[in-house]
Amino acid sequence: MVLHEKSVEFETHEVDLSNKSEEFLRASPTGKVPVIVVDGDSLYESNVVNQYLDEVTDAPKLVPEDPKRRAHARIWMAFADTDFFPAVFVASVGRERGYSEERISEAHEKLRTALGKLEERLEGREYLADEFSLADVAHAGNFVRLRELEERGELSLDGYPNVASWVGRLEARDSYQAAV
After folding, report:
1. What is the rounded distance in angstroms from the CA atom of residue 145 to the CA atom of residue 85?
2. DSSP character at residue 8
3. Is the peptide bond prior to 60 cis by the omega test (within 30 degrees of 0)?
4. How far, in Å, CA of 88 to CA of 151, rounded?
5. CA angle, corner 139, sides to 163 and 90, nearest 5?
6. How confident is the model over 83-134, as pLDDT tens digits?
7. How far apart are the C-alpha atoms of 122 and 47, rounded to whole Å?
8. Which residues pair with 44 in a beta bridge?
């Protein structure tokens, strides 16, 4: 999404995460995606990769210039990693991964809590840091799974109108459409 926002040409390499190649494991010490290799060095973890790309490419900059907004962007990027993603992931793929019903139920509760915090933050705002930023991108990567939960009737965004509007705004971006 970041590369599309910045109109940077790039090539992707699909990875079979259930059968990771030696080449991929050399590039990704954690065995996870995304990973980029720059001058022979591997950079990984989504938020780190996105910040790096924002720093080394031209406008538009996706980290706010204002220090307070920039701090809020970082807070919400961390929230995406620690609260939002884990809850969405376990809630959406827990059964196929063989997780216990208790763990899946806990994930649904954590997801409702995370959505409540996002709902509160988005009150009167279009974006998490008051302008489109990497904080929004950090969450957007999980919208496909969020929508799957909705389609299965396990979640409704009806009780989170600010979140629903925000998700819609992000899904409507050309960069999101190109990335999914």
Report:
1. 10
2. -
3. yes
4. 14
5. 95
6. 999 999 999 999 999 999 999 999 999 999 999 999 999 999 999 999 999 9
7. 20
8. 35
